Amino acid sequence: MGFNNDRKFYNIINGEKRSAEKTHRVTDPRTEELLWEVPVATTQELDEAVAAATKAFQSWRWTSISERQAVLDKIVQVIEENAAELADIARKETGKSLLMGQIEIGNTTRQIKVIASQAPQDHVQHEDSEVKILATHQPLGVVAAICPWNFPVILSTIKIASALITGNCVIIKPSPFTPYAVLKLVELCQAVVPPGVFQGLNGGADLGAFMTTHEKIAKVSFTGTAATGKKIMAACAPTLKRLTLELAGNDAAIVCPDVDLAQAVEQTATGSFFNAGQMCVATKRVYVHEDIYDAFLCKFKAEVKEKYRIVDDGDVPSVFGPVSNKLQFDTVERMLADAKERGLEMESFEQSVPEKGYWIPATIVSDAPEDALVVKEEQFGPIIPILRWRDEKEVLARVNLDNAGLGAAVYSRDIAYAENIARKIEAGSVYINKFEIPNENAFFSGFKSSGLGGELGKQGLLSYCYTQSIHISKVSPY
Asked: Where does the record place the Aldehyde dehydrogenase domain (predicted)?
């Protein structure tokens, strides 16, 4: 599907489409072609959106869970009916192939259904002969959702669905690198949600900063870098906002000497290069036991050469693509330059790279030292260091960096041993014999500098609620 220049995009305030005097255009990372104009919201428009959400909250908060589930079911129907358009928009702004755009939209609808089914219910916390104590879950109010660029639709709808099913109103701010698909989704959904309940505003860091200090916003949910997360936490403190931060993860995989080598290679390569490594829980470092290091590395290179090559035609099915924006492209290039300056062994498998687009070949770095940028920093791009280990205690010390608390993987035939290692890894999600990918049924959070609080699963929904304890006396005073 070619570039459709006729598409229009709007901010959505109180159910209305809004244009703006100020606009910007995003560059297609695959071709460097300028895409559509998109309005940039002002702080005054955020005030309007917050006022509309505050008003809508007075009735939306009292809807039943079944009523909210019905609205989310209608949102799923809207997404399904417009899946082709949303997938095409998402793939253009991210640089993904059409296949990857379709995967994102398909996974989005499944995820919303699961979140809707997990709404917190009242339950008895304690009961004895004297008292019965109920827990009930009340919505917070207006939620600001500040979203990333790597999977703009699915990562936005985690926050949207979580806020709505718990009775909150939500204002979504997509990344300025990928505003289109999210704004289009918000626009399309206005037909099935009450005005003010679900709004969308495009803007940069200044708009996000205003969200964090706004007195009428009750919660901020942010996915992005640790540096920005720390600023958001500080900005939210004066108004005591509830806060969820899903931040960076320099995630490690540990490959034990007893693995099924073919399976471990396939899974670690997928974890490293799916979406060109641009996943929050992508495998960022692979630690392979020295007994199998050479055999693993040989098979890993063959796997990457076969499956993770540059395909510049976005209509051709591929799970590998360009880096999604120039800023991240420059970050990855800096890491490659550091590895080259150190004289590290690097290998990629491309004879040529397209002249246009933010293309970096899948690159393997062998035996890098721990202080190399490609090891100590999160690449968020198509580079992977393959490292040796000998002793369990030693490898765990190397794996458990302060910036590595989001995800990890362990590969071993001995599941009990793998689980024992997993419990010693300081990360919110650890995967055994599979690459790292969130599951909407499980709480997703980070340790240390990888986050605060979490999303998904029943536990994730509780962060969108106040929990109220109602104590009912069984001893009548009358």
From this structure: 20-470
CB 321 within 8 A of CB 275: yes
Which structure tokens are listed for 230? 């720390």
Q: Are strands 465-473 and 407-411 parallel, antiparallel or unpaired?
A: unpaired
Q: Is the pLDDT of residue 1 over 60?
A: no
CATH number of 11-247+450-468: 3.40.605.10
β-strand 383-389 against 407-411: which pairing, if any? unpaired
SS3 324: coil
- Within the chain, all domains assigned CATH 3.40.309.10 are found at 252-440
Between CA 384 and CA 370 the distance in angstroms is 13
Please identify every residue annotated as catalytic.
246, 280
CB neighbours of 128 closer than 8 A, spacing ≥ 6? Answer: none
Domain topology for 252-440 = Aldehyde Dehydrogenase; Chain A, domain 2 (3.40.309)
Q: Which amino acid is at 307?
A: K
Going by pLDDT thresholds of 50, 70 and 90, the confidence category of residue 248 is: confident
pTM, full prediction? 0.95
Q: Report percent pLDDT > 70 for the chain.
A: 99
Q: Who contacts 129 (Cβ-Cβ below 8 Å, separation ≥6)?
A: 474
Helix-strand-coil percent breakdown of the chain, rounded to 5?
A: 40, 20, 40
- Per-residue buried b or exposed e for 358-395, using 16+ beta carbons within 10 Å of the residue's own CB: bbbbbbbbbebeeebbbbbbbbbbbbbbbbbbeeeeeb
Q: Which helix (H) or strand (E) holds 462?
A: helix 457-462
Cβ–Cβ under 8 Å, residues 23 and 38: yes
DSSP notation for 17-83? EE--S-EEEEEPTTT--EEEEEE---HHHHHHHHHHHHHHHHHHTTS-HHHHHHHHHHHHHHHHHTH
